[in-house]
Design brief:
The chain is mainly alpha-helical. It has one domain. It is 76% helix and 0% strand. The chain has 3 helices and no strands. The relative contact order is 0.17.
Length: 89
């Protein structure tokens, strides 16, 4: 039987969430560089644009998802830092 401490699980979870944070932040940074604006500004731009461009709508979906997931990941990281982790079977 392999035994694992709660601290080891906590460290593994932190590494996993930090990796996710990096991935989502990279997507956000990439989109901000590509369009030269924030997500909120971009959403206003595509909603008022006369011509629908599929790539822009596709990027909006990806960008919005990254922003939402980043918020969730940051919350989880803070919970792990506080030790608010429960190991279940």
């Amino acid at each position: 039987m392999v035994q694992v401490t709660k601290q080891s699980v906590q460290q593994w979870a932190m590494f996993d969430y930090l990796s996710k944070k990096h991935r989502f932040q990279s997507t956000i940074n990439q989109m901000e560089r590509k369009y030269g604006m924030t997500l909120a500004e971009f959403e206003k731009y595509i909603e008022t644009s006369e011509k629908e461009i599929f790539e822009e709508w596709d990027d909006n979906i990806e960008w919005s998802a990254a922003v939402g997931m980043l918020a969730d990941v940051l919350q989880s990281i803070e919970e792990i830092k506080r030790g608010a982790i429960e190991v279940i079977e």
